[in-house]
Amino acid sequence: MSNRLPILPIIGLLVVAAFPLLPVPPFWLTLVNNIGLASLVAIGLVLLTGVGGLTSFGQAAFCGFGAYTTAVLTTAYGVSPWLTLPLSLLMGAVMALLLGFITVRLSGHFLPLGTIAWGLALYYLFGKIEILGQYDGITAIPPLSVAGYAFISSQSIFYVIWGFVILTAIGATNLLDSRVGRAIRALRGGAQAAEAFGVNIVRAKLTVFVFAGVLAALSGWLYAHMQRSVNPTPFGLSMGIEYLLMAVVGGAGHVWGAVFGSAVLLVLKEVLQRFLPDLVGTTTNVEMVVFGILLVVILQVAREGLWPLLTRWVGVKVRERQISKNASALDRRALPQRGGPLLSVETARKEFGGLVAVNDVSFRVRAGEVVGLIGPNGAGKSTTFNLITGLLGLTNGAVTYQGQAISGLNPRDIARFGIARTFQHAKILPDMSVLENVALGAHLRGSAGVVRSMLRLERAEEATLLAEAARQVERVGLGPLLHRPAGDLALGQIRILEIARALAADPALVLLDEPAAGLRHAEKQELSALLSKLREEGVSVLLVEHDMGFVMGLVDQLVVLDFGTLIADGKPQDVRNHPAVIAAYLGGSA
Ligand code: ADP
Ligand code: MG
User: Is the pLDDT of residue 351 over 80?
Assistant: First the structure.
């Protein structure tokens, strides 16, 4: 435990607080205020695009919603600006929800195209609407004021803007560092795995959409009261593109990188605009050309953005998550009666076009047993797993769990029953630590939402989730790698990591798809001991595995598939001697 003061943040805060008191020329102060306003939008984009992977060119429109809401209410209806603040933010949230609802379902490049479409459309809409003053906009917006003191000067509004920036950056950092944050971080590249552990992916996407929309609206609200007038120009597509560039140049995955990126872009633009025309002796837009070239160079030199370079250069270490020794234990699921019926696959069928991958397969798993599912490559084992866990829909047949039909449910609802899985092609989040990857498995064992996470009111719950994740990492033998990025692990270790993630869900049934592939002999023995231990505890296991030695010594029941069809089902010794099995599968190696 370290109880040193957070030196860097405190120095940063003092510099910010002292800045307006220095004898800086007024235009620099205005510039710094503009950097603050842009930072708010860019922080939203860090979560939306950098972390969530949802590229938006249309964020400037949300600034417009915030700015126009307060502009209309304060000028036409005389509402106090402090009362319009929640309304502006609400407007941003509602519009983000609406536009998000339409766009998050788009995949690939259609999503950014969708944001371009609304970015363009809303700019013209702002310019057409009469009560918004059309292209002339709205003027004579009152300044913010507190107890008769009006924030009119650049010096005074500076503190308001940067106060919001600092609070927002802290809130965003807290959010990323939480249970909801893990779900958001899983959006880019880890959605399937996250969904298998109960994360509602569409909801997580809408959450970041709304988060980013609200921040842009906040920026617009502040802008309206700083500028005291609004018109459509700053809310168009070209500003939307600039905001995205700020987030990307700063380092799209880093909250403070958004602030840094905003500063780099706006200062660069200002400097070029001021000095370059004199230098080259023309007034054509040569500065925009140089600006563009510099951006390309920056992105070439620093693909991850400038912030990671800066922190590495300054020598800032990423702090490891602390594992609390005395975090209270999580509740455990009541496991079903040993030997009773648990999972029942009934004439399950899956066709891919003309290919029958799973051909009317029926088998059962009893509570507290380890069942092996074997068969040659392409026999339909992984597809069967996907049918059970809801990743694929059945063409025909049914799957029941403790007598209840689960076929037709989505993966996250099936996860709620206590069914956890690993994937044949490992699905981990390589940039997240081993600990955080495993903690994602415990998603359904926590409940904290966005607001509690931003305010850090969920620390007790988070501590129990992390302690549980650490316990499972320790249990599977990856303890020494707890804080390492999961992407650093060897393939065999990644499979083991997936087992720990499944165990963090407190499962009643675990489905393991080739867990021993890539493991050395000793590691296989440890895995075998772990699975036996799980059976002792009453957890049921359904296991796909190729290593017959491994399977034979472990399982209570063996189910054999060949070309999608079940050819044997019974005790391992009986199945081993089954003529069809010998012919189809064991023949070559026996
Ligand atoms: P196993 O896990 O037993 O090796 P799979 O269940 O992965 O086999 O695959 C069974 C068959 O279904 C294979 O012929 C495979 O090519 C096919 N298959 C699996 N998934 C898909 C898919 N999403 N689309 C089309 N064919 C698929
Ligand atoms: Mg497979």
Answer: yes
Start-end of H helices in 370-419: 381-388, 411-415
- Render pLDDT for 266-286 as a digit per residue (tens, 0 to 9): 999 888 888 877 777 766 677
For ligand 1, atom 26, which residue shows the shortest CA distance? Answer: 352
Domain 7-314 annotated CATH 3.30.1360? no
Q: Which residues line ligand 1 (CB under 6 A)?
A: 352, 355, 357, 375, 377-383
Q: Whose CA is nearest to atom 25 of ligand 1?
A: 352
Ligand positioned closest to the Cα atom of 377: 1
Domain extents for the chain? 7-314, 340-418+507-590, 430-501
Per-residue confidence band for 4, with pLDDT thresholds at 50, 70 and 90:
low
Which superfamily is assigned to 340-418+507-590 in CATH? Answer: P-loop containing nucleotide triphosphate hydrolases (3.40.50.300)
Coil vs helix vs strand at 430: coil
Residues 288, 270 contacting (CB under 8 angstroms): no
DSSP count for the chain of H helices, then E strands: 23, 12
Report how far residue 357's alpha carbon sits from residue 163's, in angstroms, rounded to the nearest whole number. 59
Of 321 and 334, which is predicted with more confidence?
Answer: 334
Query: DSSP states of 273-334 as a string?
Result: HHHHHHHHT--STHHHHHHHHHHHHHHHH-TT-HHHHHHHHHTPPPPPPPPPTTPPPPPPPP
Instruction: Supply the Cα-derived Rg of the chain in whole angstroms.
Output: 28
Query: DSSP of 234-261, one letter per residue?
Result: GGSHHHHHHHHHHHHHHHTT-HHHHHHH
377 Cα to the center of ligand 1, angstroms: 9
Mutate to test the pocket of ligand 1, among 377, 383, 543 (most ligand atoms within 8 A of CB): 383
Q: Report the alpha-carbon distance of residue 169 to residue 39 in Å, rounded.
A: 9
Is the pLDDT score of 173 beyond 50? yes
pLDDT band at residue 291 under the 50/70/90 scheme: confident
Distance CA 40, CA 218 (A): 8
Cα 365 from Cα 346, distance rounded (Å): 12
3-state helix, strand, coil in the chain (%, to 5): 55, 10, 30
Do residues 535 and 508 lie in contact, with contact meaning Cβ atoms separated by under 8 Å?
no
In the beta sheet, which residues pair with residue 542? 371, 511
